[in-house]
Amino acid sequence: MSRLRWYRIWECLAWLAVLLLILVCLLPMPQIGPEVAGGDKFQHLLSYFLLTWAHGQLGLSQRQFLLRALGLFVLGMAIELAQGLTGYRSSDPADVLANAVGIAFGVMIALAAPGYLLRFEQRFLRGKSPAA
């Protein structure tokens, strides 16, 4: 069980980030700025790293966390398949690889250095209640 006082709020924010990822990946988006070679792959890697790391900070059991990481990988594959069906986005297997690398980094960092969110709560939210 998580020791986070604001667990429900952090959990909602983590799932909201997943929903935002799905929307950004499936909605038509205009090209903003110049296209950078490999920039798309870096965005995939960074997005999935941050999502995985964030879920790793929730104080879940190791099993729960690894299942979520696996779920993010499956979600990434499903998004790539769905993008290929949209007609305005394209599917790229290299994106799945970039997602997997981001997830792997997120798992490694979250398991090696857990508790950032707990320390944040203790330092900045001490004495405050999530209901306040």
What is the N-to-C succession of helices and strands?
HHHHH
Q: Which parts are unreliable, with pLDDT below 50 for 5 consecutive residues or more? A: none
Overall form: elongated
How much of the polypeptide forms β-strand, as a percent range?
Answer: under 5%
Number of helices: 5
β-strand number? 0
Q: Which structural category fits the helices and strands?
A: mainly alpha
Query: What do the pLDDT scores average to?
Result: 92
Measured as a percent range, the helix fraction is 55-70%
Kindly report how far apart the N and C termini lie: 23 Å
Rg from C-alpha positions? Answer: 16 Å
Biggest sheet: strands, sense, closure? none
Oligomer: single chain
Structure notes:
- This protein has 132 residues and is mainly α.
- The chain has a domain at 40-124.
- 70% of the residues lie in helices and 0% in strands.
- It is elongated.
- The model has no long low-confidence stretch (mean pLDDT 92).
